[in-house]
Amino acid sequence: MSEEYVLQLQHIRKEYPGVVALKDVTLELKAGEILALIGENGAGKSTLIKCCSGAVIPTSGKIIVNGKEFSSMTPQLASENGIAIIYQEFNNVKELSAAENLFLGRPIRKGIVIDKKAMEEEAAKAFEQLHIKIDPKAMMKDLTVGYQQMVEIAKAIQQNARILVMDEPSAPLTSAEVESMFEVVELLRKKGVSIIYISHRLEEIYRLSDRIVVIRDGEYVKTLITKESQVEELIQLMVGRELTETYPPRGNCIDKNEVVLELKNVTGNGDKNINLKLHKGEILGLGGLVGAGRTELAEMIFGSVPKKSGQMFYKGKEIDPKSPREAIDLGIALVPEDRKRHGAMLGISIKNNINMPIYERNSRFSVIDEKLEQEIAEKYQKNMAIKTPNLNQLIKNLSGGNQQKVILGRWMAANSELIIFDEPTRGIDIGAKYEIYKLMNDLVEKEGKSILMISSEMEELMGMSDRILVLAEGNMTGELNKEEFSQETIMTYASAASNE
Amino acid sequence: GTRDDGTIKVGITIQNLSNAYWAGVMGKLEQEMEARGWEYTIVGCDNNAGTQVGQVENFIISGCDLIMVHPADAQSVEGICSEAMEADIKVMCWDDPMENTTANWVLDNTELGREIGKTASEFINEHYTKDEKAQVTVIGYPSTKVLLERADGIKEGLEENCEDNYEIIAEVDGLEAPEAQTNVETVMSAHPDANVFVGVCAGAMIGSNEALLAEFGKGKIPENYGVITTDVTLQQLDSLKAGNEAVRAIVGFEGSNEDTAKACADMFERILSGDDFSSGKNIYRAIGPITLDNVDQILKGM
Amino acid sequence: MKENKLGNIIKSQAIWVVFIVLCVGFTIANPRFITATNLLIMLRQVAVWGIASVGMTFVILLGDIDLATGSVITFVNVLCSYLMVHMGVPMALAIIITLAASTLIGILNGFMVSTIGIPALIATFATQTAFSGIALIICDGQPINGFTESFKVFGQGKVGPVPVPVIIMIICFALGAFILNKTYFGRYFYAVGGNIEAARLSGIRTGRVKYLVFALSGFFAGLAGLVLLSRVNSGMGNASLGYEFKVITCVVLGGVSVSGGSGRMSGVVAGTFIISALNNGMVLINLNSWVQNIVLGIVLVLAVGFDCYQKKRQAN
Amino acid sequence: MKENKLGNIIKSQAIWVVFIVLCVGFTIANPRFITATNLLIMLRQVAVWGIASVGMTFVILLGDIDLATGSVITFVNVLCSYLMVHMGVPMALAIIITLAASTLIGILNGFMVSTIGIPALIATFATQTAFSGIALIICDGQPINGFTESFKVFGQGKVGPVPVPVIIMIICFALGAFILNKTYFGRYFYAVGGNIEAARLSGIRTGRVKYLVFALSGFFAGLAGLVLLSRVNSGMGNASLGYEFKVITCVVLGGVSVSGGSGRMSGVVAGTFIISALNNGMVLINLNSWVQNIVLGIVLVLAVGFDCYQKKRQAN
Ligand SMILES: Nc1ncnc2c1ncn2[C@@H]1O[C@H](COP(=O)(O)OP(=O)(O)OP(=O)(O)O)[C@@H](O)[C@H]1O
Ligand SMILES: Nc1ncnc2c1ncn2[C@@H]1O[C@H](COP(=O)(O)OP(=O)(O)OP(=O)(O)O)[C@@H](O)[C@H]1O
Ligand SMILES: [Mg+2]
Ligand SMILES: [Mg+2]
């Protein structure tokens, strides 16, 4: 490995009104290495790497690519200098085909005329390399979240970039897809591509990276050689304290006699004949591959999408919520998987975001009790350890993880009895994860609530659930009790339907 | 007639059908044509020449025997009117002395403006002197040719008929009543002794009358304050007749709406019956002031 | 937080600064501008737009737009005068029926936008077109007049020196600010305007919110129409052509973002005042009405542009 | 994918079905409707809007809107006739100058929208207001006429039985379809309209795309203005009040989504034809012009509503 740096971000500082996202961070990428960038939510990882494409213009600092210095970057310059970036948020055009998305901004063309066929052929090749079956002509909006992410990855690879930056590429993917992505990453490494890899999943970091850069609160902390580092050390550097357990223990608090939620042959929204029982004080895990239909099931329970047939019982009474409002009033909550689109109301304050479902409850003749509003917001800011200078801050100015905490706070405040978590810790750092797990435990243990948890992280699913149900292509394919938990069994069930 | 069943069909396009004066006259004209057993289509072009050309095209294709245009811009419809003439359709123009027509029923808008100016002068001469000049506001709407000509005519008429006893203190827009009212209020605020308002249309009169009523109250408007414009609508005539409002005179045409409609229908008859207009195809419309003296007679035909 | 509030104050004041600069300029050109009488006249003139702008603010906050406002005002003019004059309906009842009708038009818009899913621009444009036709049919293109004296109060009356329409406008502004800041509906407007799907998943019945907002827009337009009717004392089938854009201009000048989710009532008040000062001042200084158009366009670009440019720079 | 294409075809055909139903209806009411002469006249009448709708389609695909179109058409009318009549500029040069000027107005809009960040609705409304004033100042409120005979060709000429404006419109439609489907910048319009941030981060110079689209909209409006001028043979300061909404209606009827990112040129052709059939047919069947407004509103709601309702149901 040569000691020459292909990319240097030097003394980068980025200020937002009221927030300093980065304070003098330096990061240097060597030729042909995989450099992991880790840090808590809001540490500034995404902001930092956005600087090398011009998606974010740093307040001060230098960007040096292959020895050439740039005071400011643009997406065009970055691409001309061999940099490709997979962003944490999706960056696709829903109304164009997968192939056109793959070639967005650099279509194959003859003169001013595009060559659609060539693009489709190239796209098909790229998808094949990733072992995914995506029709290049399919509209982006018709693809699932996981597939959309795979298109993003294919797009970055397709550019034949010398420098590849990946910001949490695995977050929306299932294990099988993560595997094929890893193969490609290894292949690229062999070809001499230099890679910056951001993830909250430490096992990925250990598997792939050569060196690790840790940042915290917008400041550079330390660079480590992966092989010489310890997980405990990493975590301590990230969160600034020691964490002993990944999954906090929880006493048995399940009340077998009280069934909070029962589904009988629920069909609709892509799911068929789903039966399940959730007891009071239980955390029931829902496992499966991308497209298994778990989110769809959650949407039906939450009244967001109507079911076609079957029955739902909540605390023994039959229910058929026609809107989220009805579900919320019954005591059901949903922490959605796509935070930016379905969770956070980005343009309004943290305080309003937390209070949104309970305004009617806390109003008199439609007039809001502003004191109560403030108290509630303060309470859950404290409980959820939301990092913010003040509660009137717009939620869009928070990092992904902190946004998630606001959403969790919202449902805590709404006093829901049954909380559905759809990928509760997607893109959330270890420190915050632990807090959220503890909170989930407290909810079932101390407050007698019940939780339905959808998760694609196998570890998390097994670590947190009391029982696991597995879905495949809209069918329920298996149920596991705690003592039966194992990755292999879950995977077998998860791929059951497609094997038939 | 070219119609299969022998009935006569008339196509009419006018500048603006949502305008009170036009809606009123056209309503009466409809009655006249119905009485004669004709078929008709009346459309407004919203002061838009392009639209009007299209409307004449549609009339040609729908097999009219007579097309009447009240042109947004006479020059623009000359071409299409000549096509109509070629198709053996009679064409009449209301207002302008057009070329490609069978006959024109002409209103000289500059002349009409002059008449308004003259009528206003009589009022001014009666109430004002060299030492105490009338403070005149001209209410126009400079975006259409017709109204622009009227406004210019008004100024000429004032100059010709007044002694040195007036002064134009403001010129403002006011095609529709609310706009006129707002602008007159502003003028009165800028010139507290603004007292004579002369305008080019019904909206100008209704708006300024209402502004004066609001300022002084009914019956309390000083004698030397007045509003004089053209167009014959019921509301204007009522205000004039009431006597305790600001309306002093209206410059009208043939008389009532009914008179106008009848005169127009008579023109239609003459044209349809194949009268020869080659010696003089421009028939000029009568213009004359309506005052308290003849208002009752006119109101009968509204 | 302090900083933020200060920033907001400065931002909203930028609009007020524009207003004050305009006032000073006009006063220099014609000292009568600043007299109490003229200022009251100025406000009276803008009352119709100001009242309608309250409903429009809600609609624009939702990220929608209401092009039907002008037609609703015209329709109300014609309907109310038809009821009172041709059908002999007592004034109070006629007013109630008229306001109900205008609110219903708003609900029709809400139905098209929310239930059918037609973009507001198109749905309300269709309503505009259709109701301008209906208004003309009702009145047969003729002005309707001859109301009772008491009806004049709304448009021409005064309480002390203050014209009644100005009082109505101020009450509407206050009501608008109250709804936006103190009631949960107001919070919902911002939430739905900002991210409708997230709002729905937080338990807001977004469909109902849209209905409510369009109904309110219809209602305020109806009220504005009544004030106009009383002011001009005659119902006409073309009373308010293009008023929707006057009203939209007031709202947007006031800093309400047309993409929805942000804006404040106080800004709209300032926007309305600016338009009113311009309308009045340009006539006072005898500006040619063609040039007035150019000035209006430039002021709009400068005022909105300043705000947008700031935001754009901040975003980076 | 097959399914998808089929779906698209059915969708775009829904608009054509509306067109055919209208034609059949009008023909039954008045057989003259379906004569070749009338159909050509019908197309000639709509040519001005059809030409302008090509540029408007691009703008709406971007999720923006161009309210300046009507003013640009008026401005072009006045400018070109002023140059030819009052300044004696030769026809060809006058046309070139005029088209350049209209494109420049488009670029001005692009500057305000892209560089300053003013929402298109506001920016182009300001342009509309200002340029309607400028046009009136140039012509002093008077029509300008007295062009050379050869100038009449664009609006009144014929090639065989086919009017020249119809030919120009067809060329513009074909050019529009080519740009949208075959050229890379046409695809960029979809990308920028669909997700501007993604487009930017993929290296598309989104600012330039906006400039280009508004410039094209100005250019096509300019061309439409020239055709109108040649058709009416006289330049007026209020030639095309409200044309922008006629043009927007054609585009939106044609299924182009006002939120940007989706729509096809063939749909816009259908939308234009529907408007043209309605305009022509309603006069042929002697429909009262007030009722015409009501019919227009209802057709707009039905056609767009059907599409939107389908999409809304599909989304669930
Ligand atoms: N547009 C913005 N305006 C204001 N503050 C911002 C903005 N974008 C990011 N920030 C702030 O910058 C900091 C860094 O955010 P960033 O998204 O880079 O974190 P991250 O390390 O990628 O976190 P995560 O792991 O949650 O994705 C956060 O404190 C956030 O609040
Ligand atoms: N917009 C859409 N249009 C058509 N089909 C869709 C759409 N979204 C999802 N689907 C289909 O619905 C099914 C469920 O997809 P989804 O990814 O939501 O499942 P999931 O179990 O929630 O997966 P995840 O692990 O991502 O939570 C898949 O078969 C997918 O193809
Ligand atoms: Mg991040
Ligand atoms: Mg899911």
Automatic annotation (TrEMBL), chain A:
<dbReference type="Pfam" id="PF00005">
    <property type="entry name" value="ABC_tran"/>
</dbReference>
<dbReference type="GO" id="GO:0016887">
    <property type="term" value="F:ATP hydrolysis activity"/>
</dbReference>
<keyword id="KW-1278">Translocase</keyword>
<feature type="domain" description="ABC transporter">
    <location>
        <begin position="254"/>
        <end position="498"/>
    </location>
</feature>
<dbReference type="GO" id="GO:0005886">
    <property type="term" value="C:plasma membrane"/>
</dbReference>
<dbReference type="InterPro" id="IPR050107">
    <property type="entry name" value="ABC_carbohydrate_import_ATPase"/>
</dbReference>
<dbReference type="InterPro" id="IPR017871">
    <property type="entry name" value="ABC_transporter-like_CS"/>
</dbReference>
<keyword id="KW-1003">Cell membrane</keyword>
<protein>
    <submittedName>
        <fullName>ATP-binding cassette domain-containing protein</fullName>
    </submittedName>
</protein>
<keyword id="KW-0067">ATP-binding</keyword>
<feature type="domain" description="ABC transporter">
    <location>
        <begin position="7"/>
        <end position="242"/>
    </location>
</feature>
<keyword id="KW-0677">Repeat</keyword>
<dbReference type="InterPro" id="IPR027417">
    <property type="entry name" value="P-loop_NTPase"/>
</dbReference>
<dbReference type="InterPro" id="IPR003439">
    <property type="entry name" value="ABC_transporter-like_ATP-bd"/>
</dbReference>
<keyword id="KW-0813">Transport</keyword>
<keyword id="KW-0472">Membrane</keyword>
<dbReference type="InterPro" id="IPR003593">
    <property type="entry name" value="AAA+_ATPase"/>
</dbReference>
<keyword id="KW-0547">Nucleotide-binding</keyword>
<dbReference type="GO" id="GO:0005524">
    <property type="term" value="F:ATP binding"/>
</dbReference>
TrEMBL record, chains C, D:
<protein>
    <submittedName>
        <fullName>Ribose ABC transporter permease</fullName>
    </submittedName>
</protein>
<feature type="transmembrane region" description="Helical">
    <location>
        <begin position="118"/>
        <end position="138"/>
    </location>
</feature>
<feature type="transmembrane region" description="Helical">
    <location>
        <begin position="211"/>
        <end position="229"/>
    </location>
</feature>
<dbReference type="GO" id="GO:0005886">
    <property type="term" value="C:plasma membrane"/>
</dbReference>
<feature type="transmembrane region" description="Helical">
    <location>
        <begin position="41"/>
        <end position="61"/>
    </location>
</feature>
<dbReference type="Pfam" id="PF02653">
    <property type="entry name" value="BPD_transp_2"/>
</dbReference>
<keyword id="KW-0813">Transport</keyword>
<dbReference type="InterPro" id="IPR001851">
    <property type="entry name" value="ABC_transp_permease"/>
</dbReference>
<keyword id="KW-0997">Cell inner membrane</keyword>
<keyword id="KW-0472">Membrane</keyword>
<keyword id="KW-1133">Transmembrane helix</keyword>
<feature type="transmembrane region" description="Helical">
    <location>
        <begin position="250"/>
        <end position="278"/>
    </location>
</feature>
<keyword id="KW-0812">Transmembrane</keyword>
<dbReference type="GO" id="GO:0022857">
    <property type="term" value="F:transmembrane transporter activity"/>
</dbReference>
<feature type="transmembrane region" description="Helical">
    <location>
        <begin position="290"/>
        <end position="309"/>
    </location>
</feature>
<keyword id="KW-1003">Cell membrane</keyword>
<feature type="transmembrane region" description="Helical">
    <location>
        <begin position="92"/>
        <end position="112"/>
    </location>
</feature>
<feature type="transmembrane region" description="Helical">
    <location>
        <begin position="159"/>
        <end position="180"/>
    </location>
</feature>
<feature type="transmembrane region" description="Helical">
    <location>
        <begin position="12"/>
        <end position="29"/>
    </location>
</feature>
